[in-house]
Design a protein that fits this description.
heterodimer, A: alpha+beta, flat, B: alpha+beta, 20 helices
Chain lengths: ~100, ~850
């Protein structure tokens, strides 16, 4: 399932911002249905880099290391709710600069 | 005597821990990120000590504070300077941190003894250094085991290979960063490493780089109109392509994994610089040719090992594969071609060493090594008593502050992790008090584990499942006094309430519901779609609640026919001042309506009130009769009062038909709600119990049938129906329970018709019908006499065909009881 979610995420990111309005509801619906099935998908784009955030796998570009921010997300974070417990099933793969 | 049972692979690149239990090995997953292995990397950043994945990712930012591959320096006098803390550390110190982290993977029963693996190349000093690391990680007993031996044990045990004569095995370990090969002699008494070879700088990462350099770069150079892309990406000087390197490396690794399963892959890349996507294919053939030199290098090392020990290829009985890089099919193929031995890849090569170490640990008794223990171990630390943790239980911020107080001038470390594996502070030193902002996953409960360690990093305090709710409450807002519900159709022709917001939820609130249209509304047919939002109790009848938002979408307003089953999106927003905004969107006919309902203006539809009153009359008559029959006269009398009130209200409605001025309708609505509340109190609970009983009866019947005659298909459907049983049986909604019972009835019928004899009674239902109900009486007659003969001869296939023919002859087809009824509101 996480591979399917990643594909949906990739499709979403391929759409140009100016065309996105047409698809917005469809993506909202898809993520809503995924949530009903227990999958929570988080896109960490533009978040400041936090070395305590174990839900992301960061590739850090900026070597002086200050004001780091997630600039690109190759894979989203996915959690799964199982029997009342939420667990991380996929770390986001991100670029930080 | 108790066995050691715990096995640890303390690897150069990755480490892991397992336990031998009841004949099997259980690999513990990292509670942070849930992986089987932990990268053997330590980083120091912002006064934190990070171990594993998070440490590794800091390599590019602060290489001077990140330490990896320290295993190579084990047993040497080399010290590592940590600029962040101005301390000097040894490989033993770092290895101890890795071991402590691995011990953390284990739940309650922490190991006191463990088997730790070491490379075949380790000498006595290096081996003792590994033991020391184990002791300083808190272990009281450490047994060492050579990695190739562990691998052999893993394969021998999982495959139950019996060894009758002496054999030579090769353990080929091709990991992420290193390559090792060992020649092992194995017989029924012992396993021994004869010799080994290796290259500390050859692994899977080299292959990813090769893909990137030789397969990706030539294509990208054309697309980007540049040259020497690889050099530009990896050069120390920052270029426009430095960012591209990481993305490409990730794609290369994905392609490598996919090529292990498929013959060819399509790689898709987003080129930010050229603002486009490009796609190209890589075949396994290309990939194999590319990696051939690297694999050949490992084969040459292996051959040298055999030559050194005067062993021919034929004398190698088995090559066992360890390390993630051996997933690549070409590695296996090439080894098989070069050595003609059995190449064994039957168990997970990334965890083989852990498995082997754990098997070994499962055969070794725990010793009382009091002398050795005494030298290294201090007295067991006492647990901290008066730790005070201060935090907000509910938060709407993305971070929430946790403050910890420890009395008596305590100095040590703390660490906070989120139980879903997505947050980890790492180890942080503190004195008496610490502050940490905890990162929250939005709109849900977040559970954290807080651990405090003494200055030797031994656990002295643990608080599990500290809970912080995000966005669920906001202490500054007003709570909702009642449930807010949407009235929806069920499949039985009645309606019920679906809760949108719960009583005591804090304003403002917003939620999106996805529903479907429950009846076809043809354009200009005069039909309408009704959106009715009420305030009250979700588990009562819709008419007993206060309507706070009422909206009719008339067929005249539709641009096209609205078909049953069409999706409809409804957004609900309630502001702090209790204004309700409803946005409705039906994509199929491109209809979008937004309406604000003000809390002070009541919404009442005369037509709707009349419909509710009329519908209830039939039900109430039935209930009065039932209570009278059961000698519950008192309830019957009270219901009769309600009945009289309903009739009076209907009369009153006629009187105000043309009254657009007075507020009599509000008075009627108020009286109607009161009447329905009384009705609900008297009847609803009884009906819910009756529904539950009927549901349980069908459930038991089907269970018994499935036990007698198992049918996986039906069982699957059955399990799906009863899956959320607790939820709908406790909903107090007769509609919900009834619709589930109907689904069970459908299964029950399906089971019934599995039996050929069942068709006999169905046939008689058709044969007893009046002949004039069929469109052709003489043909029907003929079918009936053929049917009787088929029953006599027990020809059931023929009988089924006859029943089908009779059905098609019927002028009016019988209604399918299980078909969903059209809704009254139009919303389901």
């Amino acid at each position: 399932m996480k591979d399917i979610i990643t594909q949906i995420f990739e499709i979403e990111n391929k759409i140009k911002p100016e065309d996105f309005a047409t698809f917005k509801r469809n993506f909202q619906r898809i993520y809503h249905e995924l949530e009903q099935e227990g999958f929570i998908v988080v896109n960490p784009k533009d978040q400041p880099y936090d070395e305590r955030d174990a839900s992301i796998e960061a590739n850090i570009l900026n070597e002086n290391g200050s004001n780091l921010k997630i600039t690109k997300v190759l894979k989203p974070t996915i959690y799964k709710n199982e029997g009342g417990n939420r667990i991380l099933i996929q770390k986001a793969v991100v670029i930080v600069e | 005597m108790e066995n050691i049972n715990f096995g640890i692979d303390l690897g150069t690149t990755n480490s892991g821990i397992g336990k031998f239990q009841a004949g099997k090995v259980n690999i513990y997953k990292n509670p942070v990120g849930f992986r089987d292995t932990l990268p053997s990397v330590i980083a120091y950043r912002n006064a934190r000590i990070l171990v594993g994945d998070k440490a590794r990712e800091l390599t590019a930012v602060q290489p001077e504070n990140v330490f990896s591959s320290f295993k190579r320096k084990m047993g040497s006098e080399h010290t590592f300077h940590v600029p962040a803390t101005q301390e000097n550390k040894t490989a033993i110190d770092f290895s101890a941190l890795i071991l402590k982290e691995l011990i953390n993977f284990v739940g309650d029963e922490k190991p006191t003894s463990a088997v730790i693996t070491i490379p075949a190349s380790f000498d006595t000093i290096q081996s003792n250094a590994t033991k020391s690391a184990g002791y300083s990680a808190g272990l009281q007993e450490v047994l060492l085991l050579q990695e190739p031996i562990a691998a052999c044990l893993a394969y021998a045990n999982t495959q139950n290979i019996s060894i009758d004569e002496s054999k030579n095995w090769l353990v080929y370990d091709f990991g992420g960063g290193t390559f090792d090969v060992a020649l092992v002699s194995i017989n029924n008494r012992e396993l021994k490493v004869i010799d080994h070879e290796g290259n500390n700088f050859l692994g899977g990462l080299d292959i990813d780089n090769l893909i990137l350099e030789h397969l990706f770069c030539p294509i990208l150079e054309k697309e980007l109109g540049t040259e020497n892309l690889w050099k530009q990406m990896v050069s120390a000087e920052k270029s426009a392509y430095s960012k591209l390197f990481f993305e490409l490396l990730y794609r290369a690794e994905e392609a490598k994994k996919e090529l292990s399963i498929k013959e060819s892959v399509f790689v898709e890349l987003e080129l930010d610089l050229a603002s486009k996507f490009i796609e190209f294919e890589i075949t396994r053939q290309q990939f194999n040719e590319l990696i051939h030199p690297k694999v050949d290098e490992t084969v040459k090392l292996t051959k040298r090992l055999l030559e050194k020990n005067s062993i021919s290829n034929k004398q190698v009985e088995r090559i066992i594969l360890v390390g993630g890089t051996t997933y690549i099919p070409y590695v296996k193929e090439y080894l098989h071609q070069e050595f003609e031995s059995t190449v064994d890849s039957s168990i997970d090569p990334t965890t083989a060493i852990i498995v082997g170490a754990s098997y070994y640990a499962g055969t070794k008794n725990k010793q009382n090594l009091s002398t050795e223990k005494a030298e290294i171990k201090e007295d067991l630390p006492t647990k901290l008593q008066d730790v005070k943790l201060v935090y907000e239980v509910n938060s709407q911020d993305n971070d929430e502050l946790l403050t910890g107080f420890v009395p008596n001038e305590f100095s040590g470390y703390y660490r906070v992790t989120r139980t879903d594996g997505g947050f980890d502070t790492g180890l942080i030193s503190f004195h008496s008090k610490f502050n940490e902002f905890l990162k929250l996953v939005p709109k849900t409960s977040n559970f954290f584990n807080v651990k405090i360690f003494d200055k030797h990093q031994i656990l002295v305090f643990e608080k599990e499942n500290l809970s912080i709710n995000h966005g669920i409450y906001n202490i500054s807002g007003q709570p909702l006094p009642n449930d807010i519900c949407l009235e929806v159709d069920d499949t039985l022709g009645t309606t019920y309430l679906e809760r949108v917001f719960r009583k005591n939820d804090i304003l403002p609130l917003s939620r999106k519901l996805y529903k479907t249209i429950s009846k076809t509304i043809l354009k200009d047919s005069g039909e309408k779609l009704i959106i009715n939002i009420v305030e009250g109790k979700a588990e009562t009848s819709p008419a007993s609640n206060l309507c706070i938002g009422y909206l009719e979408i008339n067929s005249e307003d539709l641009s096209a026919n609205l078909l049953k089953g069409t999706d409809i999106e409804i957004d609900f927003d309630i502001s702090e001042s209790r204004d309700l905004t409803v946005n409705i969107y039906i994509g199929a006919i491109n209809l979008e309506i937004s309406q604000v309902f003000n809390a002070s203006a009541k919404q009442v539809s005369i037509a709707k009130v009349r419909l509710e009153l009329e519908k209830s009359l039939t039900n109430i008559d039935h209930e009065i009769e039932e209570f009278s029959n059961n000698n519950q006269e008192e309830i019957a009398d009270r219901l009769n009062d309600v009945r009289i009130e309903i009739i009076e209200l209907l009369k009153a409605l006629i009187d105000i038909e043309d009254d657009l001025v007075t507020d009599k309708i509000y008075n009627i609505d108020e009286r109607k709600r009161k009447a329905f509340q009384v009705y609900d109190d008297l009847v609803r609970r009884k009906n819910v119990i009756a529904e539950i009983e009927e549901y349980q009866a069908y459930k038991m019947e089907i269970k018994e049938e499935l036990l007698l005659k198992p049918n996986p298909k039906i069982e699957h459907v059955f399990n799906n129906i009863i899956k959320n049983e607790a939820q709908f049986l406790n909903s107090n909604q007769t509609s919900l329970i009834k619709s589930k019972t109907k689904e069970l009835q459908k299964i029950s019928q399906e089971i019934y018709f599995q039996n050929d004899e069942s068709y006999v009674s169905l046939f008689y239902q058709y044969s007893y019908k009046d002949l004039d109900e069929y469109s052709n009486e003489s043909i029907a007659k003929k079918h009936i006499s053929n049917g009787e003969r088929a029953i006599k001869d027990a020809k059931y296939t023929e009988l089924k065909a006859i029943i089908s023919a009779l059905y098609h002859l019927l002028k009016v087809k019988p209604k399918d009881y299980f078909e969903d009824k059209n809704g009254t509101l139009g919303l389901k």
